[in-house]
């Protein structure tokens, strides 16, 4: 199949850019699906730093990882504080926005401000040619606002620094996820934002 669903396509992009031995970030550990994928991708010589603000999520992730836990660092904190925990370049990062699937409390959701702050900081850490993928779920309360804030932010990123794509399946029911992928095309420490992409 040429047209992938959002989550497989996100993993495909990272599989093509992340190298064994690199450090990568799972900004929203959730139930550990992406953390496990990233841990296998970087191998025993690499490392994964995974964030979540819910003990429940990190417990589920640790249980899923099993022996892979030895090269994964699970952080009970906001991904907006990524720069306090990650000091070296990263090969890539993943986000799954929204709430923790199967949680008893679906009111705990990702927020526009912290999501954008985390992406902004991760772009400074990302290697040239690296990719950040953001799977956006907007079917819950606050979801459309986060989607729109994210879209406004990534549209403002300077085209000389990054390339941004939005990928979605248009004929799916029940608020299917949208994938935003950001590729870093030149080395920089400070992210440049502009009024429009023609600057």
Q: Would you identify the CATH H-level superfamily?
A: Vaccinia Virus protein VP39
> Would you report the number of β strands?
7
What is the number of independent domains?
A: 1
CATH architecture: 3-Layer(aba) Sandwich
Order of SSEs, N→C? Answer: HEHEHEHEHEHEE
Unreliable spans are none
GO molecular function: methyltransferase activity
Pfam families: rRNA_methylase (PF06962)
GO biological process, one term: methylation
InterPro entries: MnmM_MeTrfase, SAM-dependent_MTases_sf
Structure, described:
The protein is α/β, with parallel strands linked by helices. The protein has a single domain, classed as Vaccinia Virus protein VP39 (Rossmann fold). Helices cover 32% and strands 23% of the residues. The chain is built from 6 helices and 7 strands. It has a 7-stranded mixed β-sheet with strand order 3-2-1-4-5-7-6, sandwiched between helices. Strand 1, helix 2 and strand 2 form a beta-alpha-beta unit. The chain is globular. The chain starts with 5 loop residues before the first helix and ends in a 15-residue tail after the last strand.
